[in-house]
Fold this protein.
Amino acid sequence: MAGRLHEGIALLGTKGFVIGSIAGIGAILTLFRRWREAVLLWLILIPEGFLQLLKAVIDRPRPTEELVRVLDPSAIGSFPSGHTYHAMLLLGLLLLFSATGIRNRWLRNGVMAIFSSLILFTAVSRLYLGAHWPSDIIGSDLVAIHTLFVLYSMYRMMGGHLSAPERRALS
């Protein structure tokens, strides 16, 4: 049962899902005239591409059957974890937008809990499936956090800001 859950979570990091999620969420933001946020989201594709290049250059071997139980074999390098990077980058950006863009406290907290859980579950699933070393996950998260900082800086330069949601005054 746990294996199926982790395999399902792993689908969230496939190339098709990565591109589709970025394009789809970007389109939704565009429909709501959140131009800066949509552009920022689409810009994720650039570092996602660089990460794949970095992965090919480093070409670190993945865990083997001799060391761990491998449920998700892959032919490409292990470091950094693309699944973990994508989850941290996309969901981290959506966390920032949710923290400041959803006014209803219960909805905001629920959405943020779901996004945070998906980030954590993605990292854990890559380890559970034997697809990555712990250092692959940690390295991906560190690179993603720095990428988020750069993207947020670009967002600020575009005139965007992440301000706290409006609070209703108690009467």
Q: What stands out?
A: Helices lie at 2-11, 15-31, 35-43, 45-58, 82-101, 105-128, 134-157.
